Amino acid sequence: MKFFYFAYGSNLLGERLKARCPSAELVGRAIANNHRFDFSKSSIDLSGKCNIRKRPGSVVAGAVYAIDEAEQPHLDRAEGTHRTTDPVRYERHHDFIVSLENGSTVNTRTYQAATPERFDPPYDWYLALVIAGAIQNNLSSQHIAGLRQTRFRRDREAPGFGAAVDALKAAGYNKWEHLLERD
Predict the structure, then answer these.
(1) Which of 2, 31, 61, 68 is deepest in the core (most CB within 10 A)?
(2) Cα 41 from chain centroid (whole Å)
(3) CA-based radius of gyration for the chain
(4) Which residues in the chain show pLDDT less than 70?
(5) Residue 139: predicted pLDDT
(6) What is the per-residue pLDDT for 128?
(7) What sign results for the dihedral spanned by CA atoms 19, 17, 125, 53?
């Protein structure tokens, strides 16, 4: 049995998501209507992570993946849903309706910050994952340009750095820093 997952942040990059959920198969590009995208989820490493929040009239671009149900715990663990006392975790949302490129709608699962509001800058390598995923999924040039305008900070000591660079290299970005260059 598979479930549909709406990715809009670092999991947009197929290699990143497959490292967490090997069964992940791309279904296609999608949008979440009446939501906005930002970096309002503060991580336990005090960096900003992607988040989506309700906002009438706004649209969030992303991609839908089909994933084996047995891998849901892997995704939950990666998104920190198991930390019930941690206010900076993500919460999994079921019945999150998105529109596919062909106009059909699909019922997905996605993650939103349990307590959004902080806007810490993301680490450079995290932002590079998001940009690489947006490029890989052919999201709009306006979306990619907006990502490249995001203020970030450099950190090579953060716990997720190695896995992020591995995913970027697996996607063909051996020199991933160029992803951050503004047009």
Answers:
(1) 61
(2) 11
(3) 15
(4) 82-88, 116-118, 183
(5) 97
(6) 98
(7) negative
Q: Among residues 122, 131, 132, which one has the least CA distance to residue 161?
A: 122
Calculate the CA 111 to chain-centre distance: 9
pLDDT for 14 equals 97
CA angle, 138 then 150 then 142, to 5° = 35
Q: What pLDDT score was predicted for residue 154?
A: 94
Residues 110 and 67: their CA atoms lie apart, in Å, by 12
SS3 at position 113: strand
Long-range contacts of 79-87 (CB under 8 A, 24+ apart): 79/111, 80/44, 81/111, 86/44, 87/114, 87/115
Task: Please give the Cα distance from 166 to 130 (Å, whole number).
Answer: 14
Token pair belonging to 171: 């996607």
Q: What is the DSSP letter of 172?
A: T
Record the pTM.
0.93
CA distance 64 to 180: 24
For tokens 């680490």, the residue is 123
